[in-house]
Each structure stands twice: as C-alpha cells, then as structure tokens.
Specification:
The complex is a heterodimer of chains A (290) and B (319). Chain A is built from 14 helices and no strands. With 290 residues, chain A is mostly helical. Helix content of chain A is 77%, strand content 0%. In chain A, helix 8 runs antiparallel to helix 9 (190-201). Chain B is built from 13 helices and two strands. Chain B has a two-stranded antiparallel ribbon with strand order 1-2. The chains are: A mainly alpha (290), B mainly alpha (319). At the A-B interface, helix 1, helix 2, helix 3, helix 4 and helix 5 of A face helix 1, helix 2, helix 4, helix 5 and helix 6 of B.
C-alpha cells in the first residue's frame, strides 16, 4: 500500500478535505442517478411512470407485480435471455482466456521468426473497432450457414487480442524461464509446465482477461443484432430493445423495459462491485508494464 | 490473494525472467504450435478474414444487365463504392459528426477520469474505496441499457432532473438538434469515466513511494506533486485512455440507435456504423456497407497511430 495516500495532509487542509469529498459526492450522485431512477421506476405503473416526479417511488405492490410480469412475460423469455447472455459471455470469456494465456505465454517465452511482426498484427486487432468486424463477419458466417445459431455468438467471443497483449506482458514479468527448464529436466515438457505452473503464476492477469472479455461480450450489441434472428437465442440486451420497440404500440411494455433494465443493471453492478479487487491487480500490470 | 501481487514482487520476478535465449532448442516447435496455434487460427478467422472479406467485397457491386433482363450480376467496380459512400453526403456527415463527438468526448473523458483518480488518491478524500466502486459501477451496464435509461432521463415526462430544472424555470431539451451530441457524449462519459479512472489509479499506485517522500521533504505542495511527479508518470496510461476513447467514439452505434425513436434530430446515417448497418440490412447493399466499414477501420487506425506517433515523438514509448 505505498501510494499517494501516504502524502501527509498538510496544515489547513481540513477545508481541502471537505471540498474534495464534496466534489466526489457530486460525482457519485451523477453516476448513481440512472440506477436510482430505474429502481424507482420499477415501482410504478406506466401511467405513474409518465405522470409522477421522476425519483418518487410508486408502491411496493406494483414493484412485485412488475417483477412478476417481467419473468412471466412470453413464458419466461426474460430468464432465457439472461441465461443466453450468461452462456455467450461465460463460455466465450473462458475459452478466450485459455487461448490468450497460451498465446501470451508463447510470445513471452519463445523466440521464433516473425514474433514481433505477429504481435504487432494482434495489437492492430486491439485497435480495430469491434463493430467494423461485425458486418463482414455476418456475411462470412451466413455463407457457411452459422448465422442465427449459438455458434455465431460463441465463436467470435473466443478471441481476445487484448488478452494476448496483457498475458504476454504479465508472463514475461512474472513467470521465470526456470519454470520451463525445470519441467524439461523432469521430462514433463513445456505444455505441462505451462498448464500446471505458469498459469497459476499468471492468475491475476487471467482473471482480468476473463472479466474484460465477459463484460465485452455481455455489453456487445451489434454482433447479436446482426447475427441472431430467433428470439429464443437473444441475449438480454437485444431482448430489451425488442420490447422497447413495442412500447410505441403497446405502452404497457414500458413496465417490462424498465423492470428488465433494472434487473439486468443491478445484477451486473453487483458482479462489478464484488469483483472489483480483481480488476485492480491485473490493470496494474497492464498499465505500468505497457 | 491477488492483492499480494504488488509492484516489488513483479519487479523481482522481472529480473529473474530475462527473455530466454535457451528457448530456441529442438522440440520447442511442437509446444509453440499447441500454445499459439488455437488463438492464431481463431484470430485469422475472426479478425483478419472479415477485414480482408470487407476489402474485397467493397470493390464489387451488383449490376443489372444492360436491358434489365435476368438477375443482377456482381461486377468489379474498383473504388466506386468508396466514392459513392462519400458522395451521398449522409455518410460523410456522419463521419464528421463522430469526429466532432470525439473532439468533445476525449478531453472531457481524460480530464474527468484524471480528476477523479487524483482526488481519490490525494489522501484528502473521505471513503475513497466507496467512491471508487460507485464510479466504476456504470462500466458493467451495457451501452444499450445505459442509452435506454438516459433516454428516459432526457425526456421531461420521466426525468427528475428536467422536472427539477423546469420547476426552477429552466427548460432544457437534451435531445434537440442543438444538444443531441452532448446527450450522446454524456452517455459515453457515464459508462466509461469510472473504468478509465481505475486504469489511472492503477498507474498512480505503481509510482514508487520514494518519489513522494522526496517531494514531501522538499516541501512540495499537493498541486506541485501532481504536476511534477504524478502527471509525467501517468503519461502512458493517459495515452492509452485517449486512444481507447477515440476508438470507442468512432464506433458509435448503440446510443443513436436507441435514442432515435425519441427525437427527430437523429437519422439513420447519424454515425458511420449506423449508416453501414442500415445500408446492409435496410437497403440490402452489402458492398457499399463493406466500403463504409473499411473506411471506419482505416480512420480508427490512422487516428490511433497518428496520435501514438505524436505522443511518442520524444522517444518515450507509450506502449
């Protein structure tokens, strides 16, 4: 814990401390506003949503009924969307992390021809806007008949160039060469050294790569929008916009959109908050070693 | 468990792990293939191939035969799609629009994230951990949902902020054509400022304590420490945040798509990505859409590399 917090607070800075905290409270109000709003809105009927003060609560009965409606609408399609999101993000991120670990380790520990050139191309992949890929990928996958299937979402999620970048930096900093040498002497081989020892040393980086990719897939919108056409395969983001599109004609869908947004946002916020310390560990290596 | 992996340990491990020259030996080829192969294959399929495919596709166009009989055929047309993309006006306007948004978004994002990070690490803030979590939370909210929520906060019927301001006699219309760009910038800031702040905090915490001690012995003020120690050492991270913010802004898609039904100041070619999407799926012109996708990719590369060159000119490599 050696950092700026060690700076001695100088004389007369009590006022400074109050001022700093006041600024932070104002910022916090800004960041929580949409989340507080959506929770209060979940306690309202559509009529109340458009007819009462934005942050006023409706009543608890309506809250329960909105949530009940959310999960029963369309034979529980919302739960299905949540599970789809979890499947796409979980599987995609897990495979992406495993592949990035291997590739990052290889870049860090092996000399081979074209290594730096290949790494530059991968870095180019980091800089390439994800949405630029989505359209051509749709036409490619539709040529082989994969659009509309789970694979159209799962496979693209398994590649994380940023993960390779992070794993290379981390592996060259934290995995000693002796690990492979010792394994070779034992006759265990390089792969064994990687799977049993190196991956354990790289754990903080791997957790970060997993979280990055999980959030990236979960938040991606253009890819499922172009790839999927069956409501049963939708992730939660796409499902909510489908409902949102129906509000024009059927205002009661507002209750579903609001409750669905609230559940999805609150769920992810809980995940973010509980995993926050893992982000820090990996980011440090990325930010300072980069 | 992860928090034990602090700076000094990483530093020690580095010295032990000088990149191995011994790795060239026989038998390294097999493991290398197993480790690198799977990623390489998927990277080629899902990153390289789509770009190549878009490039090729962008050089062709569907033409109906001279007399209009028979099905249209695919013909090589060279750069015609690119010329058309720019000539039709809407796409070029969209490009200009996202560049303008980037021009507003990047400084606000960098300065905002920087101020939050410096204040949280200044040692003067109460409850820094609590604030850090609160600022980071929106990163987990998908852009679609963030846009939906801000959409409600941008119309007077549902927005407590607009209702409050209106009670004070101030009537704002965030989605009017004058301010719709700012309304979109705000959604980006809300979602990513906390994340970028976390990147900067990580870099701040990696600054060796001796530097602070030296500064405090010299009697440096907080502001002096910020200017002469923290800002210079944060440079690489600030560059990273800037580049990713630029790329993020160029791919603007979800926000205008979701806000569009609420206002008539957003059209189907509001951003290049939106234009490419509607060209491909509403107009059915995938070749023109491919040209648009390629233009966005080239622009993203040009701006990122241009910026990196600019800041790396003094021999300080950012990454």
């Amino acid at each position: 814990m050696v950092n700026a917090t060690q700076l001695k607070v100088r004389g007369g800075s009590r006022a400074g401390s109050v001022l700093v905290t006041a600024v932070l409270i104002a910022a916090a109000a800004y960041f929580v506003l949409p989340l507080v709003w959506v929770v209060t809105a979940t306690t309202k009927t559509t009529g109340q949503l458009f007819g009462t003060f934005g942050l006023a609560f409706g009543d608890s009965g309506q809250f329960v009924s909105n949530l009940g409606q959310l999960f029963s609408q369309g034979d529980g399609i919302y739960s299905r969307w949540l599970l789809n999101s979890l499947l796409y993000s979980g599987v995609g991120a897990a495979v992406a992390t495993a592949l990035a670990a291997g590739a990052g380790f290889a870049f860090a520990k092996y000399q081979f021809r074209g290594r730096e050139a290949a790494f530059s191309v991968i870095l180019g992949g980091v800089l390439l806007p994800a949405t630029v890929i989505a359209l051509p990928l749709y036409f490619m996958l539709s040529a082989v008949g994969l659009t509309g299937t789970y694979w159209a979402m799962l496979l693209p999620g398994m590649v994380s160039p940023f993960g390779v970048y992070l794993c290379r930096i981390y592996a060259s900093a934290s995995v000693p060469d002796e690990v492979i040498e010792a394994a070779r002497l034992d006759g265990a081989g390089d792969i064994r050294a990687f799977t049993t020892i190196a991956t354990r040393m790289m754990t903080p980086a791997l957790v970060t790569v997993f979280l990055f990719q999980f959030v990236a897939i979960w938040n991606n919108y253009l890819l499922p929008l172009v790839m999927l056409n069956d409501v049963d395969t939708y992730p939660v983001t796409l499902g909510l916009t489908l409902w949102n599109g129906q509000t024009q004609r059927a205002p009661e869908f507002f209750e579903l959109v609001v409750a669905g947004s609230a559940v999805s946002a609150v769920l992810l916020v809980i995940v973010m908050v509980s995993l926050q310390r893992f982000w820090r560990a990996g980011l440090t290596s990325g930010a300072t070693k980069g | 468990m992860t928090s034990t992996l602090t700076r000094p340990e990483v530093g020690r491990a580095t010295s032990a792990a000088r990149p191995g020259r011994s790795r060239k030996g026989r038998g390294a080829r097999g493991p290398l293939l197993i480790l690198l192969g799977p990623f390489a294959v998927l990277f080629v399929i899902f990153f390289v191939a789509p770009i190549v495919y878009a490039l090729v596709q962008s050089l062709f166009a569907l033409r109906s035969s001279g007399l209009g009989f028979g099905p249209p055929t695919l013909e090589f047309v060279g750069v015609e799609n690119y010329v058309r993309a720019f000539a039709e006006g809407g796409f070029a306007a969209g490009l200009a629009r996202v560049l303008l948004i980037a021009l507003i978004q990047v400084p606000l994002m960098v300065v905002g994230a920087l101020v939050l990070a410096l204040l949280l690490e200044s040692g003067r803030a109460h409850w820094p951990r609590f604030f850090r979590v609160v600022f980071f939370m929106p990163y987990g909210v998908p852009g679609v949902i963030a846009s939906l929520l801000w959409g409600f906060l941008y119309i007077p019927a549902t927005s407590p902020v607009l209702q409050g301001l209106s009670a004070l006699g101030v009537d704002l219309v965030p989605l009017s054509s004058d301010s719709v760009l700012l309304a979109i910038v705000n959604i980006g800031l809300w979602g990513f400022a906390g994340y970028n702040m976390l990147v900067l905090i990580a870099a701040l915490q990696a600054i060796p304590a001796e530097l602070y001690e030296a500064a405090s012995i010299d009697g440096a003020s907080w502001w002096h420490t910020v200017r002469s120690i923290q800002l210079p050492l944060l440079r690489p991270s600030i560059v990273l945040v800037t580049v990713f913010t630029i790329i993020g802004t160029l791919q603007l898609f979800v926000e205008p798509l979701v806000l569009r039904p609420l206002t008539n100041s957003i059209n189907t070619d509001f951003s290049p990505n939106l234009a490419a999407y509607s060209e491909a799926f509403a107009q059915g012109n995938s070749n023109l859409a491919a040209a648009m996708a390629v233009i966005v990719a080239v622009l993203a590369f040009a701006i990122s590399f241009g910026f990196l060159r600019l800041v790396n000119r003094k021999g300080e490599r950012a990454w």
